[in-house]
Design brief:
mainly beta; two-stranded antiparallel sheet
């Protein structure tokens, strides 16, 4: 999994390790698509 954020025009990439959340597993809640015009659409499952 990779987390990408944008703050003040600066883009940051973060790849969490297993030790960042010991014993806690996330679950998939949806899918995000980036459209040609740059908008992001989130589709919940």
């Amino acid at each position: 999994m990779e987390i990408i954020t944008s703050e003040g025009g600066e883009i940051k990439w973060y790849t969490p390790s297993d030790s960042d959340a010991p014993g806690k597993a996330g679950r998939r809640v949806g899918i995000a698509y980036e459209l040609e015009d740059g908008k992001i659409v989130y589709i919940p499952e």
